[in-house]
């Protein structure tokens, strides 16, 4: 994971160069927003006017004002002769006098002439937030090596809200030098007229849901968008004990192009497995259900050690070697080198696994435990482990079932150092059961949003909380975001408006190609009371916009995901009564009703490597382009979902895209490439394959990684005492197995408004369509069989307390 310890970012250094000859400021040209773009005017600190020395880390460097200029008599040379980490850069002075004024929502074309002796040089931007001050914004472009003067241009993303000025320059982050001259910065003209609504007013404002005419033939709770545009839907036994006893395990491949489903032979019960897409596009499926709980509830779910790879070409499963432990409900995160790391879940004996597992991309097999760093920590079930830009993992606090991990509920795990550091600020950390966490667009911003959640142990009303953390901060902490909008909730007698603080668990969060996040689906209580509410979160303004609500119930075991055509598909719902919703709904966001869509008319090369410049052609002007990693989602969890911005260099219909040099920002694999116009209207995606090593020099230089989240003040812990497992109760899923069949979930804790009487509990169960419930064994912990006839909530029970 190549974690490197870092110190202070943007360390100003003492001047090392001599004074310049000119003494009076020169004005920028009418179009050029840069003051002193050619370094011809001297400043008072040994640097040219309106330029400063900047950088950080352990390295040896020089700043030289050289006469080897592109034009005029001066240029700026920045050189590193030794580097362990960090960078050096000549940066526009971050002051009201020098930093160019910008307007939120606008874009700017940046240009410069350069020569380099290192491939490790990049155009780096900082922005001035009117509230928070100066902060790192993004890296825009890796400069190709050039022995002669070479012109480079790049277009910024839209300027974020609250930004009034920017500063930028060239970072040198490998041994060698970059000499630059004649900087330019121009505001991009409005490329297209305002959008014209092509649908109804409601469609243009709120989008539209459609329920597909063909139902999903399998009880799928796992959805993976494949690089051929089809969708793998994994059910296994589908939480149906009769299917498990019969050994009937199912998957299906859905083709959005024609609406067809193909049933796929499935070798094991992949119900509640983990899954992730490998860099070649195959799907690694790990563990699953070895056994359901016993009828009396004395033994819980069991996870098996088996692991399989699904090939989208042959549409078949192939077995890999076994994992070291069983892992029912494991995490699965792909790393920057293509390896996969997994935590948590239940073992073959229903205890919690404390073993971290590593699947080697090079060896195509799970590694023995002695090759994998271990803290012997139990991370719970489906812990949301998000890869950070420096290779560390951020545990967001989202998980499945019960309470959160001890401590603050969120943490940063440093694999190389093998340390866990708690991160503060997550509200109601023990009510984040089946919340959703997502790395916000663009991934370069390193912000994570965590939405909603509940707790199946105590079964309170699910919450409306939205918490945001900025991992670019030296000591990041969650801060409160706006509450999730309320919709309607079906308590068993039809939808009614939500009241008070009612929110939802089982929420789905989907990255959209316009840079926003769709949140949809959910329920108010443990496998009950579906919530119909959908909204769009804008990371730039940190606001929710309520849109059309999904007419279908999509709660427990549901999933929602982005299709390559820009629509969102939602499938699955498994209430506590054991039924399944096979209806599939598809959402068309408002951007699909804003007029013609741009089209990517050609992609010169679909095989991309880190640090590349890749050319596409489009049929009309676009404002941005991005890579979106296709979904591999289950139980509100897809920690690998990410939106990676691709800065543009525009020449008419030819657009050069600048690919990040950092695979920890965009792990290797297949991505959907979208081009988006100034009105937020996306193209249909093209598929591109990103692989290869980091963009490195042949020295000790690493990819350009900034100094984020590196002054952590939370409680830190190293490896604990080696142990075999973590004790987990058999009621971990929030179901009392004394009643009904295994796929029925009578809650161990009823909602608070249900009085603790037989009559009230039986009324609630009847209202939620539980039907006849056999009592398993002689115990009746919830008092549902007062007449002891072996049937819960029978005719004689309701009359007894």
Key traits:
about 800 residues; mainly beta; five-stranded antiparallel beta sheet; about 5% helix
Brief account:
Helix content is 3%, strand content 34%.
Instruction: Please state the structural category.
Output: mainly beta
Beta percentage is: 25-35%
Task: List the total number of helices.
Answer: 3
List segments where confidence is low: pLDDT < 50 over at least 5 consecutive residues: 1-30
Shape: elongated
Give the overall pLDDT as a whole number: 93
What is the tally of beta strands?
A: 57
Q: In whole angstroms, how far apart are the ends?
A: 59 Å
Major pleated sheet: 5 strands, antiparallel
Radius of gyration: 28 Å
User: Percent range for helical residues?
Assistant: under 10%
Q: Identify the strand order in the major beta sheet.
A: 1-4-9-6-7
List the topology elements.
Elements: E1 51-56, E2 59-66, E3 75-83, E4 87-92, E5 108-116, E6 121-129, E7 133-142, E8 146-155, E9 163-172, E10 176-187, H1 201-206, E11 208-211, E12 222-225, E13 231-236, H2 241-246, E14 250-255, E15 260-265, E16 274-277, E17 283-286, E18 289-291, E19 302-303, E20 307-311, E21 316-319, E22 333-334, E23 340-342, E24 357-360, E25 365-366, E26 385-387, E27 393-395, E28 411-414, E29 419-422, E30 436-439, E31 447-451, E32 466-470, E33 479-480, E34 488-490, E35 495-497, E36 508-511, E37 517-520, E38 523-525, E39 528-532, E40 534-538, E41 543-547, E42 559-562, E43 568-571, E44 584-588, E45 600-603, E46 607-609, E47 613-618, E48 624-628, E49 632-633, E50 643-645, E51 648-651, E52 654-658, E53 669-676, E54 686-691, E55 716-717, H3 758-767, E56 773-774, E57 791-792
Parallel strand pairs: 46-54
Antiparallel strand pairs: 1-4, 2-3, 3-10, 4-9, 5-8, 5-10, 6-7, 6-9, 11-44, 12-13, 12-49, 13-14, 14-15, 16-17, 17-20, 18-19, 20-21, 22-23, 23-24, 24-25, 26-27, 27-28, 28-29, 29-55, 30-31, 31-32, 32-33, 34-35, 34-39, 36-37, 37-40, 38-39, 40-41, 42-43, 43-44, 45-47, 47-52, 48-50, 48-53, 51-52, ...
Domain Glyoxal oxidase N-terminal: 251-577
Region (Disordered): 776-801
Biased composition (Basic and acidic residues): 776-790
């Amino acid at each position: 994971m190549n974690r490197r310890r870092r110190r202070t970012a943007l360390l100003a250094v003492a001047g090392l160069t001599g004074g310049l000859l000119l003494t009076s400021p020169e004005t920028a040209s009418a179009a050029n927003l840069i003051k002193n773009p050619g370094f011809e005017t001297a400043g008072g600190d040994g640097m040219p006017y309106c330029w400063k020395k900047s950088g950080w880390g352990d390295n040896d460097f020089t700043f030289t004002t050289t006469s080897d200029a592109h034009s005029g008599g001066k240029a700026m040379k920045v050189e590193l002769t030794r580097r362990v980490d960090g960078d050096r850069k000549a940066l526009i002075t971050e002051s009201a006098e020098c930093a160019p004024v910008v307007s939120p929502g606008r874009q700017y074309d940046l240009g410069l002439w350069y020569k380099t002796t290192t491939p490790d040089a990049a155009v780096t931007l900082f922005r001035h937030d009117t509230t928070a001050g100066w902060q790192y914004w993004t890296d825009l472009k890796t400069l190709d090596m050039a022995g002669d003067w070479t012109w480079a241009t790049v277009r910024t993303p839209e300027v974020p809200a609250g930004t009034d000025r920017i500063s930028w320059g060239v970072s040198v982050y490998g041994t060698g030098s970059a000499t630059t001259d004649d900087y330019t910065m121009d505001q991009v003209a409005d490329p297209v007229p305002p959008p014209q609504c092509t649908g109804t007013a409601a469609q243009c404002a709120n989008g539209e849901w459609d329920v597909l005419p063909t139902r999903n033939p399998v009880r799928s709770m796992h959805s993976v968008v494949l690089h051929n545009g089809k969708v793998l839907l994994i059910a296994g036994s589908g939480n149906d004990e009769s299917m498990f006893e019969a050994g009937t395990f199912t998957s299906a491949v859905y083709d959005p192009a024609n609406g067809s489903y193909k049933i796929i032979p499935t070798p094991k019960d992949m119900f509640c497995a983990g899954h992730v897409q490998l860099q070649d596009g195959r799907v690694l499926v790990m563990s699953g259900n070895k056994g359901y709980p016993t009828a009396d509830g004395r033994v819980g779910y069991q996870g098996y050690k088996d692991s399989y790879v699904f090939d989208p070409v042959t549409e078949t499963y192939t077995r890999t070697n076994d994992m070291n432990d069983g892992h029912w409900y494991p995490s699965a995160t792909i790393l920057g080198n293509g390896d996969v790391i997994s935590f948590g879940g239940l073992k073959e004996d229903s205890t919690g696994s404390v073993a971290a597992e590593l699947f080697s991309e090079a060896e195509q097999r799970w590694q023995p435990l002695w090759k994998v760093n271990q803290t012997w920590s139990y991370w719970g079930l489906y812990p949301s482990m998000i890869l950070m830009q420096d290779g560390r993992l951020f545990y967001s606090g989202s998980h499945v079932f019960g309470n959160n991990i001890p401590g603050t509920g969120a943490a940063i795990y440093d694999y190389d150092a093998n340390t866990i550091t708690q991160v503060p600020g997550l509200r109601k950390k023990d009510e984040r059961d089946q919340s959703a966490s997502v790395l916000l667009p663009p991934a370069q911003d390193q912000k994570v949003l965590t939405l909603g959640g509940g707790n199946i142990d105590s079964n309170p009303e699910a919450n409306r909380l939205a918490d945001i953390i900025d991992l670019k901060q030296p000591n990041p902490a969650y801060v409160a975001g706006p509450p999730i909008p309320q919709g309607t909730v079906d308590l068993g007698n039809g939808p009614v408006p939500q009241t008070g603080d009612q929110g939802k668990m089982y929420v789905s969060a989907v990255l959209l190609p316009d840079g926003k996040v769709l949140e949809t689906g959910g329920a108010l209580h443990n496998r009950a009371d579906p919530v119909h509410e959908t909204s769009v979160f804008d990371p730039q303004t940190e606001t929710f916009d309520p849109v059309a609500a999904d007419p279908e119930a999509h709660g427990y075991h549901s999933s929602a995901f982005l299709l390559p055509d820009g629509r969102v598909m939602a499938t699955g719902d498994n209430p506590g009564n054991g039924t399944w919703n096979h209806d599939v709904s598809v959402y068309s966001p408002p951007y699909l009703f804003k007029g013609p869509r741009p089209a990517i008319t050609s992609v010169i090369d679909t095989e991309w490597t880190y640090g590349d410049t890749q050319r596409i052609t489009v049929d009309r002007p676009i404002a941005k382009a991005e890579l979106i990693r296709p979904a591999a989602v289950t139980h509100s969890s897809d920690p690998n979902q990410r939106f990676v911005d691709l800065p543009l260099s525009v020449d008419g219909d030819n657009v050069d895209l600048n690919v990040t040099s950092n695979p920890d920002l965009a792990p290797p694999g297949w991505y959907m490439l979208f081009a988006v116009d100034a009105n937020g209207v996306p193209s249909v995606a093209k598929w591109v394959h990103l692989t290869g090593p980091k963009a490195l020099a042949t020295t000790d230089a690493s990819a350009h990684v900034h100094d984020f989240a590196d002054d952590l003040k939370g409680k830190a812990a190293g490896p604990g005492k080696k142990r075999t497992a973590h004790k987990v109760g058999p009621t971990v899923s929030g179901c009392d197995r004394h009643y009904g069949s295994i796929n029925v979930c009578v809650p161990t804790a009823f909602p608070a408004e249900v009085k603790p009487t037989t009559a009230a509990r039986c009324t609630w169960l009847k209202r939620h369509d539980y039907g006849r419930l056999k009592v398993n064994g002689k115990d009746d912990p919830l008092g549902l069989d007062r007449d002891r006839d072996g049937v819960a909530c029978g005719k004689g029970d309701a009359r007894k307390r």
